[in-house]
Design brief:
This protein is an all-alpha fold and 349 residues long. The chain is built from 19 helices and no strands. The N and C termini lie far apart (72 Å).
């Protein structure tokens, strides 16, 4: 193939990919159609001769799969990118693949694997001095330490992530750094300081809306949800309800982000219950639980089961309360989530 024909072919592939990436964010197109198209372009990208261009665009496909929650294909493609990057000894993309694998295991609560890959990613990004991805690595490590109740260690990594953003213009890294800090501060019961960093995260989001593009709505809803959970921890249930309702009012949450929508319904029902509205608590929490269970991710439903154990215990339905607590303990043990294991044991006791 002549260099002109090669260049033309590559341009057609890349232009077609960009169009399909945009379509992957269209709520009116079903996921199967999106996935089939993304798979097709993942293979077509093998015709791109430039290594960096080829791998960068393969990561764009992975990002779309993350957005539409196609976890199994996401992992498969990341591993293929990792193998390809290793074969051509491309350090940046090897490190990036490790980072994606770490976050994949983190969102599935496989914390030992998450830490393994994040450490490998961090080591390589330190060598090539990439502050953006170092910030992401430190945020992920903070998240891991939060899951094992080491909040001071988590906060240490939170601020390491924030320091990395001082020298870059990447607003996404800055947003994640602020968001991660206020979540950890909430665990440490520092409500006022948490609210300060919540506002900083919101300001970054609002002032750079075009940069966040299709993720703007989910990031906005997540930020309200996380701050609502800070208020739950500090027993300020009225403020928690306000933020959960704000998050639920964000467009397309139910359709595009079903796990976040289920979490918000769960959190709102619990905040209402703790504020004294006990009439519909069991019904509302059971509905949220059905939504979470339908997504096939047992880890995200642990908290709901613990809340149902609490509500049913108060109603003196001890058998059902025990059942929910036992289920929560089993799932928390499977995913090695220390905080929820301990809470489940308290209810079982």
């Amino acid at each position: 193939m002549s260099s002109f024909s090669q260049t033309t072919t590559e341009t057609i592939i890349l232009d077609g990919l960009d169009e399909n990436i945009e379509l992957s964010f269209d709520v009116n197109i079903d996921n199967k159609t999106k996935v089939d198209s993304l798979k097709k372009y993942f293979d077509l990208l093998n015709n791109i001769s430039n290594d960096s261009t080829r791998l960068r665009n393969k990561f764009k496909i992975v990002n779309s799969l993350i957005y539409i929650k196609e976890d199994s294909i996401e992992k498969k493609f990341i591993n293929e990118i990792k193998t390809e990057a290793l074969n051509i000894d491309n350090t940046y993309n090897i490190a990036r693949a490790y980072n994606y694998l770490g976050d994949y295991h983190l969102k599935h609560f496989v914390l030992d694997s998450a830490l393994f890959y994040i450490n490998k990613s961090e080591e390589l990004f330190l060598k090539i001095n990439d502050p953006v991805y170092l910030s992401y690595c430190y945020n992920s490590k903070a998240n891991i330490y939060t899951h094992i109740n080491d909040y001071n260690k988590a906060l240490e990594y939170n601020f390491k992530a924030l320091i990395q953003t001082d020298s870059i213009l990447n607003k996404r890294a800055l947003f994640f750094a602020h968001q991660s800090i206020f979540m950890t501060l909430g665990k440490l019961q520092n409500q006022d300081k948490a609210f300060e960093y919540y506002n900083k995260a919101l300001n970054v989001l609002e002032q750079n809306k075009p940069e966040f593009k299709h993720n703007y709505n989910s990031f906005l809803a997540q930020t309200h949800n996380f701050m609502g959970s800070v208020y739950i921890q500090t027993e300020d249930y009225d403020k928690a309800q306000e933020l959960y309702l704000k998050a639920l009012a964000v467009p397309d949450i139910q359709q595009v982000f079903p796990s976040l929508y289920a979490a918000l319904l769960d959190n709102l029902a619990y905040a209402q219950y703790k504020a004294g509205n006990t009439t519909t608590a069991q019904e509302d929490l059971e509905y949220a639980l059905r939504l979470k269970d339908s997504l096939g991710k047992s880890a995200i439903a642990i908290q709901t089961r613990l809340r149902l154990a609490e509500v049913l215990y108060a109603q003196k339905d001890l058998d059902q309360s025990y059942q929910y607590a036992q289920e929560a303990f089993n799932d928390a043990q499977t995913h090695n989530i220390v905080e929820e294991q301990l809470e489940a044991l308290q209810w079982l006791a």
